[in-house]
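Recap quiz, item 2
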Amino acid sequence: MTSPPHFELLSTDGGIRRGRFHTPHGSFETPCFAPVGTYGAIKGITPAQIRETGTELILANAYHLSQRPGADAIGRLGGLHKFMGWDGPILTDSGGYQIFSLDDHCHVDSDGVTFQSVIDGATIRLSPERALEIQRDLGPDIAMVLDHCPAGDAAEEVVRAAHERTLDWARRQRDLHESWGGAARGQAVFGIVQGGIDPQLRADSARQLVALDFDGYAIGGLSVGETKERMRQALDTAVPLLPEGKLRYLMGVGTPEDFKMAVKHGIDLFDCVTPTRHGRFNEAFTRHGRIKMRNQQYTEDGRPIDDECRCYTCQNFSRAYLRHLAISREMLAGTLLSIHNIHYFQDLMAEIRQGSEEGTR
Amino acid sequence: MTSPPHFELLSTDGGIRRGRFHTPHGSFETPCFAPVGTYGAIKGITPAQIRETGTELILANAYHLSQRPGADAIGRLGGLHKFMGWDGPILTDSGGYQIFSLDDHCHVDSDGVTFQSVIDGATIRLSPERALEIQRDLGPDIAMVLDHCPAGDAAEEVVRAAHERTLDWARRQRDLHESWGGAARGQAVFGIVQGGIDPQLRADSARQLVALDFDGYAIGGLSVGETKERMRQALDTAVPLLPEGKLRYLMGVGTPEDFKMAVKHGIDLFDCVTPTRHGRFNEAFTRHGRIKMRNQQYTEDGRPIDDECRCYTCQNFSRAYLRHLAISREMLAGTLLSIHNIHYFQDLMAEIRQGSEEGTR
């Protein structure tokens, strides 16, 4: 058996893959959904509560943490796991997506990106090397490369330049990670396939990235306003070019419908703020669609959100209580609804994994 | 053994009393601190988390709940315990204090009080009978009478009229509670001693209230801006007139210093929003004073808030992390600091109880 970090492909059922990713902080089963704690906290939920939702992997944002409180500070405090009180696997995003979504306020060149801090407006310079250095200090189990993610409506030459820059940066970061002995120290590094919606660029990006031999591959630049059909096309193009034995991660996606579609294309990992953001806006996911918890119809509804759900919220509270909390603007509403939503997403992943196992028997 | 609700005085050490109050939802040890969940939720904390702080009794506000979502609605949903997912003892305040603090916007007469709703400005009428009816529907283990609590700087004749009205209302509510068989149904009802800072009125109020034979006695109208010395004087006057065998409750108090003072005057029960309110404003209580968690000095402080504390927050998170959450305005800061503060208050109560037991050996 290979030492962590490494991906173990357990079975495939048509397109749906069943796997397990091993890290020094334990393994996570795939297909996997990772809730997002941008600043090192899933909003309103303690690690103990996250654990109870069935979550195995969580995501944090290296760029945001490097701004506040600083990657060096977290490093001196013993690393991100200790800092945020989560002893399971952690993946950090490099923050490229967030930076490039600043749009007018950022300037990119061959050696990195210059932009204004969202915290204090200071001018910040982030290079691919610096992005990896931040993640070395934070110490997540999986680090993501810094890539150049152009806007969804960018001109062809912009998309092409971003594609080439992304590959150049990927090479430099792969080399740097190796020079540090990243894998030997237990940290995986994932490359990111870019190329927008152009099939040729997507395919080029995938092929060249695979040649660099990353520990896993993300599909970036999707879920940025393109149609579902375009997302499907990009997956159709890129995923078959990725090696069977490495994890495939669809970044920033998404909804239960997206998961069901994407696992059929061979995706193993997802992350999204959906369950917590919707939770804070008083919306609950159920097998029968979304529920707007503030609706009057729930005023005296003594049933749980979903009577099949085993989450803490559904086991203890009625829709009437949750509506009351939402209407009264009690912060507990966001906490309880986020717990339910994450649990619901994890249940869905467990069902997908089980379905895949049953399909291959 | 008497069936609940009833108070059991276990021992006395000088003035400090050690007791136990029995309810149909279990007992709570005294001296006791009850955190406040005005709208049926301790802000940002689940019942499971509250339980872990060592909390045995919680307080909710009958008036606020009668406004939203309605006492009848909660009654139809199975009562307050089921509604808020707390199976331990609950005390509800009638809301008199909150109503009278509206000041200019309320008019009181011999049959009740008329005021504007804080929710929608509607004109609301609350009589002593209605206040008790609300608490019958909610079903807390301990109901509080509606009293007339005048402003701290009210003229003597206003204080005297409020005192007489409070006694008249107390009698009517005592009779009504008996006519419903309140005690047989497991609900205790507590009277409230008023009289402001006038020793004669305080004494009169206590004596006449005791003659009505309530299940417990609250000292009201304190912690409204008077000096600590005045609070002490009011306790000196009122408490010796209360029966030994009944619980004494100092409403809306307060801080660790207040508790230490008041238990020496024979107080058994406290409630206050202090730990949660300070928690949400990023302030932590410790054995060495309060900590303002946003202060720069904690940026890389890897120690817990209090290294002797066994709360979830201190067992899992550093001051540096809590500062980071506070600075990043993450809602988890309020949750984790509130958990610590409530736990700290409960630890303090446990120490007071233990000290009392050791003192009488």
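The interface with chain A takes residues 39-49, 68-69, 73, 76-78, 83-85, 299-300, 302, 312, 316-318, 320-321, 323-325, 327-328, 330-332, 334-336 of chain B (CB under 8 Å).
The longest strand of chain B covers residues 6-13.
End of item.
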